[in-house]
Design brief:
The complex is a heterodimer. Chain A is built from no helices and nine strands. By secondary structure, chain A is mostly beta strands. Chain A has a five-stranded mixed beta sheet with strand order 1-9-8-3-4, with no helix packed on it. Chain A is globular. Chain B is mainly beta. Chain B is built from no helices and eleven strands. In chain B, strand 4 and strand 5 form a beta hairpin. Classes of the chains: A mainly beta, B mainly beta.
């Protein structure tokens, strides 16, 4: 059973706000929610991590409702360089029961 | 640079050969992770080290795969009798500690393995 479910792909335009939602119905009490970005031929890069409510950093915001069964990564005013695959991970530790990647969301930004 | 370094960046080998892939983590990071990524898929967990010991090796696909981290720093992923299905990008990541919750994983750029 997949720990997370995300849309396979999304399209948007430069300057728009993009919201990518991830479902994690079986999230455990100790689990954190972490998002990574990956460009072709590169390793994934950490974007943001949160446990509940809202977390914001210089590149994104993460919204987590009270039941924590989903989360939304918000990218403000995207540019062409935000075209990448975005992964939502749920867990609190390394290993097979921890930080596992799904197939991710391929975000394509158009001019 | 001070990031995670993986060598070689590309490796082409023939079916049945032995391969070693090396990972130099960020200095001071005690946790080290190996993942494998096939085209169009997300990274697949292989093994996770906390210090010198393998904390979880349940992702290794079979006994042809083995990884070591003898001094708690550099790690080597070893693949015996390579098969065409082993072709993938092997990613290494490190983090300051494996304590819960695990924060940011710092990934290298990967080693692309092609088995002919």
């Amino acid at each position: 059973l997949a720990k997370t479910t995300q849309p396979i792909s999304m399209d948007s335009y430069e300057g728009q706000e993009v919201n990518i939602t991830c479902s994690h119905n079986n999230i455990a009490t100790n689990d954190y929610i972490t998002w990574y970005q990956q460009f072709p031929s590169q390793g994934p890069r950490f974007i943001i991590q949160g446990y509940k409510t809202k977390v914001t950093n210089e590149v994104a915001s993460l919204f987590i409702p009270a039941d924590r069964k989903s989360s939304t990564l918000s990218l403000p005013r995207v540019s062409l360089s935000d075209t990448a695959v975005y992964y939502c991970l749920v867990g609190d530790r390394g290993g097979a029961d921890g930080l596992t990647f799904g197939k991710g969301t391929h975000l394509i930004i158009q001019p | 640079g001070a990031g995670v370094s993986q060598t070689p960046s590309n490796k082409v080998t023939e079916k049945g050969k032995y391969v070693e892939l090396r990972c130099d983590p960020i200095s001071g990071h005690t946790a080290l992770y190996w993942y494998r990524q096939s085209l169009g898929q997300g990274p697949e967990f292989l093994i996770y080290f906390q210090g010198t010991g393998a904390a979880d090796d349940s992702g290794l696909p079979n006994d042809r795969f083995f990884a070591v981290r003898p001094e708690g720093s550099v790690s080597t992923l070893k693949i015996q009798r390579t098969e065409r299905g082993d072709s993938a990008v092997y990613l290494c990541a490190s983090s300051p500690s494996g304590l819960r919750p695990v924060g940011e994983l710092f990934f290298g750029e990967g080693s692309r393995l092609t088995v002919l």
